[in-house]
């Protein structure tokens, strides 16, 4: 394993109960996170991005998720094979998870300061009121002394998001996984939250996985992006290369939609059709039904993920032909 690799996911496949059978929603995800880098995991709803990210800390088990195969290596240790005691020593301490809805991550009946104090204590950190208030100030919260004694319902969505980020930073984790970190807050606050995450990365060297459906988020924050669709990675590369020269038809279509909106076109471009649900998955290219470049051979099994150049990867039969 490369010494710079902090996290490596290999051929991850995850299923959930469906009727009397299992429904596979993640069908073979491979990705790496290097120390200090910010990687974006981009995809539409149902693409498998959240399930893949929660699997890192085995949070999917709460809803009966089952790993069919694969490895999740953190510093060379397979997290999937650790005991509950061992994984608890990593959860929140070395790898922190920031959920989509910050208010749902906080106990509405306990004061903010108390919750932060308990979070630190859980991971063996003896925190003082002053340390917690400084951490709150560091994430851009005004009047930390006042907020320390407040309840979550007394705060705005943006303030709650900063509290959750402060909680994640208390243990100085090496990796933060942020699931749609700007999804539950006002548009006016989104850039502030993204700027805060970038500052954390710069100041502390904290690696990050940013789960999102928004190209603007990955463009602002990430150095590398992975595009998911139908439980599979369709494309991977540096953010500049993927935005300037997308290789997969799905990525090109997404960017066409984004550019249509940003350029103020009188008629907005729309990608026709809808993503396949897991119960519609077949042994063919998952983008086949919506792809304008499809051909008969696209139905002959799921295309291979091929590496082209400089860590550029794509899962498309047209890319396969380029490396033959």
From TrEMBL:
Gene Ontology CC terms, in alphabetical order: plasma membrane
GO biological process, alphabetically ordered: peptide transport
Compartments, record wording: Cell membrane
Topology in the lipid bilayer: Peripheral membrane protein
GO molecular function per UniProt: ATP binding; ATP hydrolysis activity
Span of the signal peptide: none
Gene3D superfamilies: P-loop containing nucleotide triphosphate hydrolases (3.40.50.300)
Family: Belongs to the ABC transporter superfamily.
Name of protein: ABC transporter domain-containing protein
Organism name: Geosporobacter ferrireducens
């Amino acid at each position: 394993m490369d010494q710079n690799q902090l996290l490596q996911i290999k051929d991850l496949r995850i299923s959930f109960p469906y009727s009397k059978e299992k429904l596979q929603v993640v069908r073979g995800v491979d990705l790496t996170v290097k120390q200090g880098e910010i990687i974006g995991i981009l995809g539409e709803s149902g693409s498998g991005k959240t399930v893949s990210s929660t699997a890192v800390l085995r949070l999917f088990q709460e809803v009966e998720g089952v790993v069919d195969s694969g490895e999740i290596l953190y510093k060379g240790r397979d997290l999937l094979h650790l005991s509950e005691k061992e994984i608890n020593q990593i959860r929140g301490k070395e790898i922190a998870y920031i959920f989509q809805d910050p208010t749902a991550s906080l106990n509405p009946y306990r004061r903010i300061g108390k919750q932060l104090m308990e979070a630190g204590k859980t991971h063996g950190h003896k925190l003082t009121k002053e340390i917690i208030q400084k951490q709150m100030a560091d994430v851009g919260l005004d009047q930390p002394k006042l907020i320390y004694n407040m309840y979550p319902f007394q705060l705005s969505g943006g303030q709650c998001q900063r509290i959750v980020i402060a909680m994640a930073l208390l243990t100085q984790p090496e990796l933060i996984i942020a699931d749609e970190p700007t999804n539950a807050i006002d548009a006016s606050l989104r850039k502030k939250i993204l700027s805060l995450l970038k500052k954390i990365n710069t100041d502390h060297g904290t690696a990050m996985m940013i789960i999102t459906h928004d190209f603007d988020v990955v463009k602002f924050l990430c150095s590398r992006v992975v595009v998911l669709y139908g439980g599979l990675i369709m494309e991977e590369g540096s953010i500049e290369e993927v935005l300037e020269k997308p290789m997969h038809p799905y990525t090109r279509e997404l960017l066409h939609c984004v550019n249509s909106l940003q350029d103020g076109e009188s008629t907005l471009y729309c990608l026709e059709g809808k993503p396949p649900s897991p119960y519609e998955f077949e042994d063919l290219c998952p983008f086949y039904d919506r792809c304008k470049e499809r051909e008969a051979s696209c139905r002959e099994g799921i295309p291979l993920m091929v590496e082209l150049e400089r860590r550029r990867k794509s899962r498309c039969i047209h890319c396969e032909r380029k490396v033959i």
